[in-house]
Amino acid sequence: MSGAGETPVESHRATDSAPCELAHWIGGRPVRGGEPGVDVLDPATGAVVARAPLAVASEVDAAVDAAAAVQRGWGETSLARRAVVLFAFRELVNTNREELAATISREHGKVLGDARGEVARGLDAIEFACGIPHLLRGGATAQASTGIDLRDVRQPLGVVAGITPFNFPLMVPMWMHPLAIAAGNAFILKPSEQDPSVSMRVAELWRQAGLPDGLFNVLHGDADAAAALVDHRGVAAVSFVGSTPVARRVHEVGRITGKRVQALGGAKNHLVVLPDADLEQAADAAASAAYGSAGQRCMAVSVVVAVGEAATPLVAEIAARARAIRVGPWTDPEAEMGPVVSAAARDRIVRAIEGAVVAGADLVVDGRMSAAPADGGGFWVGPTLFDRVEPEQAIYAEEIFGPVLVVVRVAGFDAALELIRANPYGNGASIFTADGGAAREFESAVPAGAIGVNVPIPIPVSYHSFGGWKDSMFGEQGVYGDAGVSFYTRLKVITSRWPDSARRGVDLGFPASE
Ligand code: NAD
Fold first, then answer.
1. Is the CB of 227 inside a 6 Å radius of any atom of ligand 1?
2. pLDDT in tens, 371-424
3. Which pLDDT value is given to residue 488?
4. Is the pLDDT assigned to residue 14 strictly greater than 70?
5. Cα–Cα distance between 123 and 112 in angstroms, integer?
6. Whether residue 6 has pLDDT greater than 50
7. Most CB atoms closer than 10 Å: which of 87, 134, 170, 234?
8. d(C-alpha 496, C-alpha 425), whole Å
9. What is the per-residue pLDDT for 499?
10. Residue 507: what pLDDT?
């Protein structure tokens, strides 16, 4: 490992006034990277708030070795003891939720209320993992044949890795590591290089919770560090969340190198509004789900499919809401929407808006901003609304991942279904209607992993599982819930016969878990 050294834990905190030098977190301590890293920016100002190292092969090896050294012992640790650590971790995340939210906002740009929601959904995932003794309870069959019993046990995989996107720097990793660790694995997180600091606080909280050193590791870096993990022979499984081209590649390479891989990709989520819907409620939902977090959510609504006579009044209602959204930095308590994550993201989104105008889409609300709403730069795009978009236009066909909502007008319900079926993505889709029959048909006919009925962002709670269809997920098993338990464990079925199973010895004690 190159350049190992201690970094004070305070350096990862959002209250820092000077940029901090982030370290990797390997074997329960900060380890300075050997190479100069990347600047981490506050998207609201463009100022450098941290510098993160880019892991090289020797550092990836060091993290895998540190994880492997302790994983077996942890996998043999009783479920009761593991649950104690999980509960302590849950309490620490809860106690530190404000600081975690501020750390997210400062590097992602999302407003504080949104970051608090992210922490709450992270807690939801930890709480699910706290139930690990119950979750790993297997099935048993007595007397399957004369004197023969069978039982299922689920065993950990070993060292598992998570590679995560910028848009939920705390929650998406928490879809992975609490459950993976609870199930007896050691975990290596490669967070997004765009907002990596919160992962260091999470590492400190795991340590404070009593997790043995080496079971949770953070390797900073870009595509190279991620690719080295996907390639590594010591890694048994990879959970990836990010854009579709990378998800597809990670899945292919991971499978070739013999790993279990779940790779969640991008999205183009449709919200269908039928003429019988409450149009004000539908407009509220569309504006909230399209512009929340500046549209940088995998479950953001990016397409409204307006059916028949719903279209004209609906577009007017959405436009009024889009114009009223207060855009500003996370430090402004009144701000409802922050900047996008980077200059590159802003430029890409502005180019997409310009392209749609040239292609003939009707620009109803123009979010291209001539000046930042805050002093001193930053990466700003305001809420943008297009009407009368055609499916062939790039603004519909591509994932924009910004505050841009397009309305496609269709004549009837069947045309709306056809549009969604033809789209290559299948993360989520919603319908707003008062017609139970139409909603029921929508639930059944739409090829997507999460369906909302009069709910715009149908991301399931942690005791259900989540994962898209089609180009929104590669691999068979979704994250968290039963699918997550299954992903992070391997099933073993034990068949046994005991000619003499009589117990010996007297023990009057009340049995307790240890
Ligand atoms: P991204 O694909 O650019 O990066 C995701 C992660 O992959 C980062 O950690 C990055 O460093 C790493 N990476 C980049 N190139 C790589 C490569 N060639 N090999 C291996 N790893 C590589 O995505 P992003 O811009 O950080 O996040 C936004 C994307 O994530 C959007 O497409 C969004 O829809 C998607 N997303 C999906 C879900 C979901 O649940 N399906 C959830 C959140 C985000």
1. yes
2. 677 666 999 999 999 999 999 999 999 999 999 999 999 999 999 999 999 999
3. 98
4. no
5. 16
6. no
7. 170
8. 47
9. 72
10. 81
Give percent of the chain with pLDDT exceeding 90: 89
Q: Give the number of the atom of ligand 1 that is nearest the alpha carbon of residue 168.
A: 43
State which of 38, 241, 248, 462 you would mutate to test the pocket of ligand 1, scoring each by most atoms of that ligand within 8 A of its C-beta. Answer: 241
User: Which pTM does this prediction carry?
Assistant: 0.95
Residue among 286, 298, 353, 364 flagged as catalytic: 298
Helix (H) or strand (E) holding 69: helix 57-75
CA distance 479 to 18: 37
Q: What does DSSP say about strands 148-156 and 489-497: parallel, antiparallel, or unpaired?
A: antiparallel
Determine whether the shortest distance from the Cβ of 192 to ligand 1 is under 6 A.
yes
Q: Is the CB of 185 under 6 A from ligand 1?
A: no
CA of 440 to the centre of ligand 1 (A): 33
Residue range 226-237: mean pLDDT, rounded: 98
Residue 357 has a pLDDT of 98
Question: Among 195, 3, 239, which Cα is nearest to 100's?
Answer: 195
Rounded CA separation 286/273 (Å):
10
Q: Which residues of 248-268 are buried (b: 16+ CB within 10 A; e: fewer)?
A: ebbbeebbeeebbbbbbbbbb
Is the shortest distance between the CB of 223 and ligand 1 below 6 Å? yes
Q: Which residue has the CA at smallest separation from atom 34 of ligand 1?
A: 266
Please tell me whether residue 451 adopts helix, strand or coil conformation. strand
Q: Mean pLDDT throughout 189-204? A: 98
Which residues partner with 20 through β-bridges? 50
Q: Is 266 in the pocket of ligand 1 (CB under 6 A)?
A: yes
Query: Burial code of 414-439, b = ≥16 C-beta within 10 A, e = fewer?
Result: eebbebbeebebbbbbbbbbeeeebb
